């Protein structure tokens, strides 16, 4: 491959990675053509971009990024596929479901960059499935903060209704 081609691929990888908030490194080696096509189809349906990359070119693209991705470099061995998504846990769920349905137990998680954190190794898949996005966590905190206020307001409203009922009964007597 010519140097110009490599630099074009590296710059394309850089721009692709910067477009997405989260990405996974997975091993899909051992899948036949039909299984790979099915994986691509499932990824497309769930808005996950699947790209098969050369480790050296991906490493150079990650080096040129503003974020320090050096923790992921140890995972760049063997065949690597890049799964990009704007929702943090969708690729993890996809990997789990697809590998259960597949006899070769592929794809296998190598590493991931989700919510500004690094997850290295196949054993992190379960944790990635349960990762909540920043917006989900903010919504949970707001719901927790609103709950006591709602209780106070409803208690005040019911108290007013009770007092009104007592006064009405006394007035009727």
Give a description of the structure.
This protein is α+β, with helices and mostly antiparallel strands. It has 2 domains: 3-131, Ribosomal protein L10, N-terminal RNA-binding domain (Alpha-Beta Plaits, 2-Layer Sandwich); 132-173. The chain is 55% helix and 16% strand. The protein has helices spanning 3-19, 33-45, 55-63, 90-101, 125-129, 134-172; strands at 22-27, 49-53, 80-85, 108-114, 117-120. The protein has a 5-stranded antiparallel beta sheet with strand order 2-3-1-4-5. A hairpin with a 2-residue loop joins strand 4 and strand 5. The protein is elongated and about 100 Å long. The N and C termini lie far apart (99 Å).
Please provide the count of β strands: 5
Structural class: alpha+beta
CATH architecture of the largest domain: 2-Layer Sandwich
- What is the CATH fold-level name of the largest domain? Alpha-Beta Plaits
Main pleated sheet: 5 strands, antiparallel
Question: Summary?
Answer:
This protein is of the alpha+beta class and 173 residues long. It is 55% helix and 16% strand. It folds into two domains: 3-131, Alpha-Beta Plaits (2-Layer Sandwich), CATH 3.30.70; 132-173.
For the structure shown, list the relevant keywords.
single chain, 173 residues, alpha+beta, Alpha-Beta Plaits, 2 domains, five-stranded antiparallel β-sheet, elongated
């Amino acid at each position: 491959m010519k140097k110009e081609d490599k630099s074009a691929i590296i710059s394309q990888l850089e721009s692709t990675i910067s477009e997405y908030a989260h990405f996974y490194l997975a091993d899909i080696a051992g899948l036949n053509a039909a299984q790979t096509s099915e994986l691509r189809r499932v990824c497309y349906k769930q808005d996950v971009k699947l790209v098969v990359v050369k480790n050296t070119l991906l490493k150079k693209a990650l080096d040129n990024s503003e974020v320090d991705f050096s923790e992921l470099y140890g995972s760049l061995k063997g065949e690597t596929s890049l799964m990009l998504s704007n929702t943090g846990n969708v690729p993890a769920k996809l990997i789990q479901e697809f590998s259960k349905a597949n006899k070769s137990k592929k794809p296998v998680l190598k590493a991931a960059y989700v919510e500004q954190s690094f997850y290295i190794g196949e054993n992190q898949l379960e944790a990635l499935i349960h990762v909540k996005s920043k917006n989900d966590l903010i919504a949970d905190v707001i719901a927790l903060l609103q709950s006591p206020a709602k209780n106070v307001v409803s208690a005040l409203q019911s108290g007013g209704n009770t007092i009104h009922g007592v006064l009405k009964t006394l007035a009727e007597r």
